């Protein structure tokens, strides 16, 4: 029994990464039935309806002071609003889920590059090498998707690439902002505030730029339920458990597994294929992320 318990604990970080990778797949499943900002706004509303009572039930703490609330809301706007909004909009415009996952998976590289001027942190030679590998890998990946015909890339255009790059910049800046201004943030209660900030802006975006039409098919309902219950609730609780066991760094180091796992899922479910050059580029980019993450650790 003890061995089984230890085995379950050992698989928790991998389970978290596996759950996280399905967010990109969920976007691919749900976006044919709702526009991206509308989809995300509904997801955040349902999540908050479940998460707020959960904070009270678990005796969670709320952020103290209006200033901290404001900082956490801004970090939520970047970490959740810009990140998820950019990813969902890019996939909505035709970007493959595996490629979107790889691009935003470069967050440790961009965070490391920005930490110098913003947090006065110096990059090590290993981090510089990781940054170079990451850029070279992405060049190969995007080069493998270039379309000499009418479109810039096979299946998507420059707008989709721009949206996912906004997601990458948003989560990178949000990570640094949270590190500087939200050090006193309780995890569960702070997540509620982050969702409030992100959901408000995404709801405004849906109101201004979208028709807000939803096709309530069984596929959409199942996808929405998965994203709310499994990702926005279960994954957060799993992260809390890992942090309490002192394994948050292990989760961070395993995040480089998300792009290949997502690419495998997208190939199996949607027959998304990457050319050989793009697959090589993915491996090089992931190696660069690994170098940066380990150097930061």
Explained architecture:
The chain is mainly alpha-helical and 297 residues long. The protein contains 12 helices and no strands. The longest helix is centred in the first third of the chain and has 29 residues, at 2-30. The relative contact order is 0.22.
In short:
79% of the residues lie in helices and 0% in strands.
List the helices and strands and how they pair.
Layout: H1 2-30, H2 36-57, H3 66-92, H4 97-104, H5 107-119, H6 125-145, H7 158-181, H8 187-209, H9 218-244, H10 248-254, H11 258-270, H12 276-296
Main attributes of the structure:
single chain; 297 residues; globular
Low-confidence stretches: none
* Rough outline: globular
How many β-strand runs? 0
Q: Span from first to last CA?
A: 33 Å
Number of helices: 12
- Oligomerization: single chain
Query: Which percent range fits the helix content?
Result: over 70%
Along the chain, the helix and strand elements come as: HHHHHHHHHHHH
């Amino acid at each position: 029994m003890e061995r089984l318990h230890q085995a379950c604990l050992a698989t928790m970080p991998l389970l978290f990464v596996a759950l996280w990778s399905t967010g990109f797949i969920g976007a691919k499943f749900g976006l044919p039935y709702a526009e991206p900002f509308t989809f995300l706004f509904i997801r955040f509303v349902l999540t908050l309806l479940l998460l707020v009572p959960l904070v009270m039930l678990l005796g969670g703490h709320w952020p103290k002071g209006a200033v901290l609330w404001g900082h956490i809301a801004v970090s939520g706007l970047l970490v959740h609003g810009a990140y998820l909004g950019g990813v969902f909009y890019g996939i909505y415009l035709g970007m493959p889920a595996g490629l979107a996952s790889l691009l935003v998976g470069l967050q440790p590289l961009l965070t490391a590059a920005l930490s110098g001027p913003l947090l006065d942190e110096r990059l090590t030679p290993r981090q510089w090498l990781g940054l170079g590998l990451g850029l070279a890998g992405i060049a190969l990946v995007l080069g493998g998707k270039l379309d000499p015909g009418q479109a810039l890339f096979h299946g998507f255009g420059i707008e989709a690439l721009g949206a996912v790059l906004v997601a990458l910049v948003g989560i990178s800046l949000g990570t640094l902002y949270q590190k500087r201004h939200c050090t006193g943030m309780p995890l569960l209660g702070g997540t509620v505030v982050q969702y409030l900030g992100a959901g408000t802006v995404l709801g405004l975006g849906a109101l201004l730029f979208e028709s807000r039409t939803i096709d309530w098919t069984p596929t959409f309902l199942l996808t929405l339920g998965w994203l709310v219950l499994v990702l926005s609730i279960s994954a957060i609780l799993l992260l809390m458990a890992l942090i309490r066991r002192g394994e948050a760094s292990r989760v961070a180091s395993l995040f480089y597994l998300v792009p290949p796992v997502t690419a495998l899922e997208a190939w199996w479910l949607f027959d998304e294929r990457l050319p050989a050059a793009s697959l090589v580029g993915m491996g090089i980019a992931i190696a660069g992320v690994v170098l940066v993450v380990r150097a930061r650790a």
